[in-house]
Amino acid sequence: MLPMLLSGSLLAGCSVGPNFQPDRLKLPSGFTEAAEEKPATPEEIERTNKEMTEWWASFNDPILTKLVQDAIKGNYDLQEAGQRILAERALRDKAASAWYPQMDANAGGGDVRYSLNIDNWPLRPGNPANRPEASILTYGASATWEIDVFGRIRRGVEAHEREVEASVEGRRALLMALLSELANDYMVLRVTQLQIKIATDNIKVAKENLDLTNRLYLEGVGNTLQTAQAQAELDSQIAAREPLKTHVSQVSHALSVLVGKMPGEMEEELKVVKPLPRVPAFPATLPSVVIANRPDIRMAEKEYAVATAEVGVAVAELYPHFVIPLTFNPNASAMYQAFQVNGMSWQFLMMASLPLMHGGKYTATIRATQAAAEASRLHYRQTVLNGFKEVEDAMAAWHDDIEYQEKLEKASEDSALARDRARKLYAAGLIGFLDVLTAERTTLTAQNAEALSRLERLRDAVNLYTAIGAGWRGVALTNTTLPVSLETQNIWARAFQQ
């Protein structure tokens, strides 16, 4: 028996099936849409890599920074993802337990009665008087130990380990999406507040126009049509501001939920008007950094590794299984007999099993796992392409929206100047009130368009930092396990960590 155990131990280092080899795509030397920027220096790339840990700090907005910190601590979706990691780790440990002997203890006793209508010549062992009743006391232990000669258990543990790594990357991807949503909502909040300010300023102008038309009417220069038009314009401006207030409340509710608070808990705090955040500098990065940082790409690679390990598990089923069963089960009718040599009963074997004929079940499983592994590899490649597309799209939007915002700023200034001139000309009786209304509406449209262009510039920055995989490093997993631990269990659970 000992030589068999030794040979089994020597073979235990063998693992059948393919070993995981990361799939590598040929990456470009740089991003096409970054060509408008001057070539990044090593110092700029290093600066970007440092900023990627807490990219939100680049907006120079303390409130945004605090919201991010609160979201990392309090968001329930993120905490749920953390629990999934803990669950995957526990499943990995469960799979690894198959490497060790599995042992159970048993004990029992009682009275039994046998049938006398069964031919049991000469006499039933242990019952020389052939009485139908007997008392039995039994105790013992049973154990099994599978020798992992061909790596079936090892490949299973490897698959679970890769699942743990994939769940970690999944949590990181969720964290990035959370921070991106939070930052975008915060930008919407501030720009909507800016739009409310624009609307309030235009209401003030509309009131002044109404006062002007009333004064001219009293002086005999104006007419009731002009005063009615001025009043209608004022009413329209007041009405247009109300949906913006509603939007501020809704965005405030969304931000509260993202940080793990009740919807109305932060509304008053966030309604305080603050300046727009600063647009950070263009992040200097390389394609290789994106591959290393984007959690969705990293997770797709881990899932490919899981599928590869599962191929090994399927292949191992074609090979012999070696198991050592052990039972120790003494029986007696009296307590003093339970520990005598004659009452001993045990077996210690080396069992081997080899699949011979199963109608192609195992080979079909291998083909299925091979196809799943190839699908995972192709999914990894598509994830890389999608990731690079997001980066290129974000860079293109960044550069295009710079010129777009500059043009809208100029249009806003020009339309405001035209509105002021129109009011003066109307007061002098040189143009009609319709020209004033047209100039005011043009100004309002231009100012709102400029505000939205500022929002797009801020969102471009958020989207670009998210696209290059920034924001998840340095954020540790928070364990919020339910209060059920080994220490709270009975003495047997504390004595044997099963």
From TrEMBL:
Presence of the UniProt keyword Membrane in the record: yes
Protein localization: Cell membrane
Keyword Ribosomal protein attributed: no
Membrane topology: Lipid-anchor
Keyword annotations from UniProtKB, A to Z: Lipoprotein, Membrane, Palmitate, Transmembrane, Transmembrane beta strand
Matching InterPro entries: MdtP/NodT-like, OMP_efflux
Family per record: Belongs to the outer membrane factor (OMF) (TC 1.B.17) family.
NCBIfam families: outer_NodT
PANTHER family xrefs: OUTER MEMBRANE CATION EFFLUX PROTEIN
Stated name of the protein: Efflux transporter outer membrane subunit
Natural source organism: Acetobacter conturbans
Classification lineage: Bacteria, Pseudomonadati, Pseudomonadota, Alphaproteobacteria, Acetobacterales
